[in-house]
Write a structure and sequence with these properties.
single chain; Aspartate Aminotransferase, domain 1; 2 domains; seven-stranded mixed sheet; globular; binds pyridoxal-5'-phosphate
Length: 398
């Protein structure tokens, strides 16, 4: 009797997985998790066909830079493949400290902590500092890792409408002065390509007594002096308490970072579960990020090329009458408004050799179903021409 009850309750969970509609649809239409045969820069080979990659976040195109590739190899040769444990137990390595110092100096911050994924870093940037009884004010379109950080913190969350300082101001009016408050926004919104209205948002946050966290995963390497990011772009370093982000985009590595005052980073290293109980970033990944940081400070041509490509690409999409949701950055959505249209558009692009990714509700707000594309400095003129031809074809299929 007891056994059969256990079997029954276990079955509930197994059936949940078996009956999941989203999984069934994913397996039927196969839009995600394609296994590419090979890659060279923006060119991939998929099921025997050459294609142009238009959905990765290799904004500066450094993932195939010879110095970055060499650094990866040197890192592994000098330190092995992994630290095989968390820094609290196995200790840090000289390259962790060197990377953190380099990144902190680049961002104009006292200290920095790097971890194994941007997701982990950004989640910890919220979860480590907020706690039960606090109020977190979050832009409604922030990344899932920040929402997870809010949930883990046990703080109360209040969302304000996307990139809308006035809404934030209104909400703050009704919050008691004595409540500890955190403002959480992104620098550049990954789906929309919008630049956060940081001057107004941080000012309102400061007037309301908010501790401010900015996730600049998509602004780093793209905006600001030499790619120092959105906070630098607006010269707001003194208004942002924690600046976090990812090293898997412009820095052509994997891993993430949290930066701030020495005091705050020391506190995070003592209290963040994601930091204490997760293995350190590997030697080759730290070396790749470090090499990319050097390159972005010495080779301005990548950033220049990125913006030149972005402008050309956006103009081309506008010429075709496509809705890019007002994107201001190399992260460019093509909003089509329904999952059926998105699927057809995506397939048409695939047919013409352009690889993109679909993003449909609930990952995006209802009616904003879109194809997410991102321009790279590595896209050649010929790539852009092929992309333009594929877009024209896809538009005609609608
Ligand atoms: C805004 C934002 N924050 C954090 C992350 C997580 O970074 P990673 O993919 O390096 O874990 C992403 C990734 O897409 C992101 O877009």
């Amino acid at each position: 009797m007891a056994l059969s009850l256990f079997t029954k309750t276990k079955k509930v969970i197994i059936e949940r997985a078996q009956d999941d509609y989203a999984t069934k649809m994913r397996l039927k239409y196969k839009p995600y998790y394609h296994a590419m045969d090979s890659q060279q820069g923006t060119h991939i080979r998929l099921q025997g066909r050459d294609m142009i990659m238009l959905s990765s976040n290799d904004y500066l195109g450094l993932s195939f830079h010879p110095k970055v590739i060499e650094a990866c190899g040197e890192g592994a040769k000098a330190w092995g493949s992994s630290t095989t444990g968390a820094r609290i137990s196995n200790g840090s390595r000289a390259y962790h400290v060197a990377l953190e110092e380099k990144l902190a100096a680049f961002l104009g911050r006292e200290a920095c902590h790097v971890s194994v994924a941007g997701y982990v870093s950004c989640c910890s940037a919220v979860a480590s500092f907020a706690q039960k009884g606090d109020l977190v004010l979050a832009d409604k379109n922030i990344h899932s890792c920040l929402w997870d950080g809010i949930r883990l913190s046990m703080a109360t969350a209040e969302r304000f409408s996307h990139n809308n300082p006035e809404d934030l101001r209104q909400i703050l009016k009704s919050v008691p002065h004595s409540t500890p408050k955190m403002l959480v926004v992104e620098g550049v919104y990954s789906m929309e390509g919008h630049i956060a209205r940081l001057p107004e948002l941080t000012q309102i946050g400061e007037d309301g007594g908010c501790f401010t966290v900015v996730d600049d995963a998509h602004g780093l390497g793209v905006l600001g002096r030499q790619g120092r990011g959105t906070v630098d772009h607006f010269k707001l370093n003194d208004k942002v308490d924690i600046l976090c982000g990812s090293m898997s985009k412009s820095l052509a590595s994997t891993g993430g970072f949290v930066s701030g005052s020495r005091e705050l980073i020391d506190y995070l290293r003592t209290n963040s579960k994601q930091t204490l109980f997760s293995a350190a970033i590997s030697p080759s990944q730290a070396a790749a990020a470090s090499a990319s940081l050097d390159i972005i400070q010495t080779e301005p041509q990548h950033l220049q090329r990125l913006w030149r490509n972005t402008k050309r690409y956006r103009e081309m999409l506008k010429g075709l009458g496509l809705d890019t949701w007002g994107s201001e950055t190399p992260a460019v959505p093509i909003v089509l408004g329904s999952k059926e249209l998105v699927y057809r558009f995506w397939q048409a692009l695939l047919e013409k050799g352009v690889f993109t990714v679909m993003s449909i509700a609930p990952a995006v707000p209802p009616g904003k179903d879109l194809i997410r594309t991102a321009v790279s400095a590595l896209h050649s003129d010929e790539d852009l021409e092929k992309i333009a031809a594929a877009m024209e074809y896809a538009v005609k299929q609608m």
